[in-house]
Request: fold
Amino acid sequence: MKCPNCKSTDTYPLDNLYNCTQCYYEWDPNEVELDAQDQVTKVLDSNGNELQNGDSVIVIKDLPVKGSPKPVKAGTKVKNIRLTDGDHNIDCKIEGFGAMGLKSIYVKKAN
Reply:
């Protein structure tokens, strides 16, 4: 089990707690799992709908692509998205373009 403080894998159980050999942090694994679920940020589309991994979205405006002479056109449907952290918080594959990252503000959830 990884240490929630320093992410080290050098941990060991002691009674009902876990201890880290690197930073000496001590934690209850049941409480850490709850905290991690509380800290998950929601990714919202342009209309405020929450997006999930595996959703389909529709691009709402033409988006230029570096190295490509043509943009991703508005109305393009993107299937099976994967949410990530960062500025471009959607990883996906778009037919004719390949793998790329999109910003959630430029898509809407498909029905």
The chain has two domains: 1-40, 43-109. Helices lie at 29-38. The mean pLDDT is 89.
